[in-house]
């Protein structure tokens, strides 16, 4: 009887858990974004820590949404650390790729080679080409939109994202979106989490959640 009651209790209180992986070049704003997510969804962290240091290793948190737990994995984007990303691919349900919109020249791959646009393209293509990210929903964040020198989101869509997806290294067809955000001010962070929440659910059969 006890075991039955316990089983029913666990069934009634358990939730699906999905994992989201934050990727992007070093200095893109992943940890700042993660801090804002925590401040919005973790009652124990009401104030975001906006003085970040480059991530070596990982920062992990689990936030509770209405219908799921969302585990956020924030990993280091420095060149030497990027080879570690692939160890997270098979268990993630969504990827958020953060771009520093102030460090990609004018945002047009064909007509500008300044900034880190080309590096960004290569890194994004590498992520999409990996068979373990196949079909995983991808949210691209055009971050640092609070700065006057940022490239606007339409240019990033046309100049980078469209070209990556249309190129042969664009990987498989997947659910994707580009959103303008400012991780520093928190603008767009809630919308980003909401996008991930709906997409991991839609892709539930492709990547089933873990029950917690
Ligand atoms: N103006 C502005 N600055 C930002 C924004 N997001 C991040 N930054 C700044 O960019 C710098 C790098 O931010 P991080 O969040 O540490 O970057 P990261 O992607 O985690 O970097 P790694 O851990 O090295 O991969 C910090 O000085 C942040 O304050 C933003 O939206 N606007
Ligand atoms: Mg970081």
Walk me through this protein's architecture:
There is one protein chain. This protein has 212 residues and is of the alpha/beta class. The chain has one domain: P-loop containing nucleotide triphosphate hydrolases (Rossmann fold), CATH 3.40.50. Helix content is 33%, strand content 21%. The protein is built from 6 helices and 7 strands, in the order αβαββαβαβαβαβ. Strands 1, 2, 3, 4, 5, 6 and 7 form a 7-stranded mixed β-sheet that branches. The longest helix is centred in the last third of the chain and has 14 residues. The chain is globular and about 70 Å long. The mean pLDDT is 94. It binds guanosine-5'-triphosphate and magnesium ion. The site of guanosine-5'-triphosphate (GTP) has 23 residues, from helix 2. One of its GO terms (biological process) is Golgi to plasma membrane protein transport. InterPro entries: P-loop_NTPase, Small_GTPase_ARF, Small_GTPase_ARF/SAR.
Top-tier CATH class = Alpha Beta
CATH H-level homologous superfamily name = P-loop containing nucleotide triphosphate hydrolases
Strand content: 15-25%
**How widely separated are the two ends?**
22 Å
Approximate helicity band: 25-40%
Keywords: GTP-binding, Magnesium, Metal-binding, Nucleotide-binding
GO biological process, one term: response to endoplasmic reticulum stress
GO molecular function: GTP binding; GTPase activity; metal ion binding
Binding site for GTP: 24-31, 77, 143-146
